[in-house]
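Reproducibility note. Readers wishing to regenerate the assembly model reported in the main text can use the exact inputs given here. Chain order matters: entities are listed in the order in which they were concatenated for prediction.
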Amino acid sequence: MLAVAFQGPQQVEVVEKPEPELLAPDDAIVRISATGVCGSDLHIYHGRVQIEPGFTIGHEYVGEVVAAGDAVTGVAVGDRVLGTFQVACGTCWFCRRSEYHKCDVGRTFGHGAGLGSLQGTQAELALVPHANLTLRRVPDGLGDDVALFAGDVMGTGYHAVVDGGVRPGDSVAVLGLGPVGLCAVQVALLSGAARVIAVDAVEQRLAVARAYGAEAVHLTEQDPRGVVKALTGGRGVDVAIEAVGDPRALDMAIRMARKAGTVSVIGVYAERVDVHMGLAWIKSLRITGGQANVIAHLDPVLELLGSGRLDPTALVTHHMPLTKASEAYELYDRREALKIVLTP
Amino acid sequence: MLAVAFQGPQQVEVVEKPEPELLAPDDAIVRISATGVCGSDLHIYHGRVQIEPGFTIGHEYVGEVVAAGDAVTGVAVGDRVLGTFQVACGTCWFCRRSEYHKCDVGRTFGHGAGLGSLQGTQAELALVPHANLTLRRVPDGLGDDVALFAGDVMGTGYHAVVDGGVRPGDSVAVLGLGPVGLCAVQVALLSGAARVIAVDAVEQRLAVARAYGAEAVHLTEQDPRGVVKALTGGRGVDVAIEAVGDPRALDMAIRMARKAGTVSVIGVYAERVDVHMGLAWIKSLRITGGQANVIAHLDPVLELLGSGRLDPTALVTHHMPLTKASEAYELYDRREALKIVLTP
Amino acid sequence: MLAVAFQGPQQVEVVEKPEPELLAPDDAIVRISATGVCGSDLHIYHGRVQIEPGFTIGHEYVGEVVAAGDAVTGVAVGDRVLGTFQVACGTCWFCRRSEYHKCDVGRTFGHGAGLGSLQGTQAELALVPHANLTLRRVPDGLGDDVALFAGDVMGTGYHAVVDGGVRPGDSVAVLGLGPVGLCAVQVALLSGAARVIAVDAVEQRLAVARAYGAEAVHLTEQDPRGVVKALTGGRGVDVAIEAVGDPRALDMAIRMARKAGTVSVIGVYAERVDVHMGLAWIKSLRITGGQANVIAHLDPVLELLGSGRLDPTALVTHHMPLTKASEAYELYDRREALKIVLTP
Amino acid sequence: MLAVAFQGPQQVEVVEKPEPELLAPDDAIVRISATGVCGSDLHIYHGRVQIEPGFTIGHEYVGEVVAAGDAVTGVAVGDRVLGTFQVACGTCWFCRRSEYHKCDVGRTFGHGAGLGSLQGTQAELALVPHANLTLRRVPDGLGDDVALFAGDVMGTGYHAVVDGGVRPGDSVAVLGLGPVGLCAVQVALLSGAARVIAVDAVEQRLAVARAYGAEAVHLTEQDPRGVVKALTGGRGVDVAIEAVGDPRALDMAIRMARKAGTVSVIGVYAERVDVHMGLAWIKSLRITGGQANVIAHLDPVLELLGSGRLDPTALVTHHMPLTKASEAYELYDRREALKIVLTP
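Running the prediction on these inputs yields the following structure tokens for the assembly.
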């Protein structure tokens, strides 16, 4: 089968690989019909997240079950399914309290030996462990472009909002309008935010946020903190979502949040950074977030995508065949796309 | 001044009364510009809730502050304000934990000596105790018809949903589509319900729910439980809101709720009733609700009305001058109106 | 092997049965070292809960794993283990949100075809499905008498308190001091209740509650509601736990709870009963409880038993050999025991 | 009257001042019978927190009401009372949601113009604004030494634990065993922690924690992280409480917390510091805390002190007359005391 393999920094290649085989009774094999390119793939592409050359990448996927072990009861051969970017065992201490993202034996698709040696989904076929938890049938009428958001990007946006404790009537700021930030904008509005202030420096992204119903604010050409003050009676937002992963964004989030408010950090951090703990302390802020628990969120997210209340269609800017993966990564690297969908 | 006085069952009268005077440093006097007729007024009208003849009724109101005691800091003379149907002291054991609806010295407008001897708001002027907690400035651009929902009907709908624990992606049923039920439908959708199933026997009310985005189901001509099953994969709704106050509705709510789900009882009960505790027990249901904490909900509700995310305009079916209060009550008693607004 | 079989009302018998065999890859077989007689066994004994003659009863157990399927990873052959009274699949819609007590394919030990045809644990050997979720290693130093409370009675007491939302500083009433009620007393005190008022009509049980640190109140010889009022400044308790399963106890709980408080119903209901919804409504009570989610509670309960912070030893009043099961049931039926432990 | 005035760094003096007078209808005047010296007083003493020379310091107090305005209903002249270190209005946006610590017009005793120009309580008399929220009657039988913990140190320990979300069965670490840390140890155990690991470098403080029931671990002579690992099966604690206010302690807390756990930061921060956000992110930690909401916690804390379930007596190491304030500060500055009580 064909698969997109990481070969080295800035270098991915479509290669021929042997087809996967069932290894455990709760494994399934999925024939991929659509697979996305994600911001985390770019970290691998740049060599910041290091994986073995030759490893198949990708972790957003929709497809059809073509084989399933004896213990697979949630889906069946022939089902059109979607899945999560991570897999979890379902029975360890963390899974028993639904903290699936911290499963003792969790693995992530397409992230090499460091995250469990689970070959990625940018391929014609993918082996899916713990299929009962990982896979769900695609609701009737839901296209591939929408379905592949459920198990990663939209689940992360949902995490930012729900874990951040947004309540109906709240004011919310979202800093950074990549796919995750834009999903967070959607979920915040869906969750009853009275207003969502969406900040970025890219006009195209601001336009999407505005179309969703947010108050879009240009990071440098406008005054984001001034807008927040004006719209919240000087008080600040109830929840500030940091969807960038940059200390400047975190600082802005801490300043934008009202006293006794929440900063939800969904942007990726890997390092030590300078944080204004003094400000966080005197404001009695709550800082939540981190890696999202998309397996736990998958059911409600699917209900919302299936009923049409969430719709990330506008985020899909490019479709390309899997065989053009190399071009896709170059294009994505130039920040010309929000979401690229590859079709094998 | 003119005021609507209860005189006896089925008998209200517009009478001349002396103007109210400030009694405490945190009192305010409001010149009423609009005041609603509510389902609870009808309980008084029917004599079920007993109050003294001659007592002024009414508890939904918008108006202008014309006098304020020295300790009133939240609003000022000249402000256009709205208020809540109840007043609370702000410092007793219950108020200290924001359970304002259970204030040790709480009083309700227009409900006679039993609820604190606080003259009602269907009058040209009303004395408003504890004005700092009770009153808020009307947000710019908000009309009287919308503003008078904040302190009673919409706050109660908000309570049904938020106290019921609705989360984004949930399925919700609302049983009973009077003004409170219809507000609950709006708030449930606003809060991210994937679907809201709205049940009533009056086609006009079903039409409003449908327009809001709910799946409207006729109580007797359709099969509400069947619809719930079909739309929830046989599982039942996450939250069933009982907005009638009738044991048959409660029974249906208990049956419609999924296992480990919630029944939110916002419909008024005054008696012992037969409840299928066996079913509630084996399903491990949570039963919440009761009289709503509208003072606590007033800020978020106002944010949502002010930003246009909630809009009860469709519920106002009639405007009448205060002097026609008697006709208004007769009309409301015939169930020909959803909400009647009286203007002094 | 020997097993205690229900033969008909008031009639249990120790019979010889074939040894169980592994049927699924996540099954285990446990050689029972101790198994309890529980109030729910008595419902079967009396014929109220109907099961097939010849079915093995019992659902509280400690023992040693003697066989385990390939997919069993949480425990191993040779491990000393305890388990829960219910088993759950771990991957269905309910299990995915840790609502294991409502598992779509859940089964209960020793309750006949109605609850999943899972032979009971009052036997020399028991087949345990879904062993990864159902079984845990017994913490070092923990005796059988303590360990067998983890998966049923103590887990239910924990549910009553935690699901009831008890917070440090709360006042709590526990109505009914059978084993579950007494466990709830322990957990409420452990959870930081400022005071626990424990009500029953049996002096021996009151003595146990008193020894735990509760204010013990005789149901008929004292005035439970008066005591609650005196100890809570007239306000009522924050959480009233109904551990009887009787409408009179439920009524007392509703009256004892403070306004905006909680009634946690852990006593078993199977029928329609008369409930003072009027009182519950005007007090804005929250009614929680129902069948307990002991699988979800098993980890914290084990931490507390293992660290000695919870200790139900005082509840074990009798030890008898499994072969004397018939006498044990007669004795339990005469209410002469709190907990009888049978040893095969 | 006599009062302890800050005169300059390392310099406090007992001076004669005019007696306070009632200024607002909800003011009270309290004749102080006991007032504590607190860690925050030391910040002033050192000049780190800057206040005006001559300003009266102190914010922990017990005494008798000797005058009260017309609007004071919660306490009366002659009552023995305790109070909180902060005062709040009870009606602003923050107070309306019980976030009293963030009151729009909040003031702190003894912290100069920067925190509201409210003269301190290390004096013979103190003016107490918003007395209905600020003061409570001392429960019968409660000594001054215990009562003065309610409104500051114990309320802060309570905040650390309850805001940190400790649940029965959790493992908790407390880093830093000053008075607040030791109160947090007590509250964590009271709240049902299965184990509390208490870390400090001062043997006397470790001994107090050990006496409370904690596992006491010397910061440098033992291996705190190793102990946490050993006691939690390698997993880390559910809640790590940082009661120092030092980035090294914060770092240790982040490392000690289990994945998806909580870090509760109650130690004071005023600056930017280096935080390992990468670790916090990949562990999906929740960081809570900041300045405590002691007004909201006052009722439950008083219930617990009054019922004897919390008892900080062991923390009071010194009693001195108010006139010896200068010696008291010198002694406290040498870290020879945990809590010094001054008596006017």
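We highlight two features of this model. Chain C touches chain B through 36 residues (CB under 8 Å). The radius of gyration of chain C is 20 Å.
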